[in-house]
Design brief:
single chain; alpha+beta; Immunoglobulin-like; 2 domains; 7-stranded antiparallel sheet; 5-stranded antiparallel sheet; elongated
Amino acid sequence: MTTSLTNETLSSLGLRSTQDTQATNKGTNSLSSDDFMELLLAEIQHQDPLEPMDNSEFVAQLASISQVTSSQELQKSFDDLSATLVSNQALQAAGMVGRDVLAPTGLGVLEQGGSVRGTVELPQASSEVAVKIYDGSGQMVRRLPLGGQAAGEVRYQWDGLRDDGTYAPPGTYLISAEAAFGGTNQAIEANVVNRVNGVTLGSGGALLLDLAGVGPLDFNQVKQIL
């Protein structure tokens, strides 16, 4: 049988009713294993001696306690595992400082006497692929024709020369790409190689890479570590 516990009975045992608990602790919607055990003991102590609790019901309630405990332990294990994974990922990312990564930033840093390189990814073969370089004012300084290309990854490299043959000053440049599909030009995403200056841990454990001349980038966006 199931013994009904009144608010008075619960109060005499130092316990609170469900209504009282919800009123004073709105953020809590579950009971711990200790709460279950207290309630079970209260039921046993106040059961009708002429109609004691059925053995099967007693076993069922013990099983409920065991299930709650197992769930709590499992949740703790998941939390510990998550913390370990974030820690390991942070250590791996920290080792990337000073290295280059390939990512769809669309921004390239030209250093004195250096170059900007990256890739474009074609979903299908194209009769003409080109990469365009723009300065900070939005002026196109160079168009790199890559010709016809098969589907897949296509590499490019800008040596810093403008279309007029003069060298562009060091700085950050916008990189875009386009490809001809069926006679129509379409914009496609440009991946650029950038240097990692630092690593930070964002909200929710997200790892952010600080890229030189670009700024923060979600670690999950990195396509290749060079």
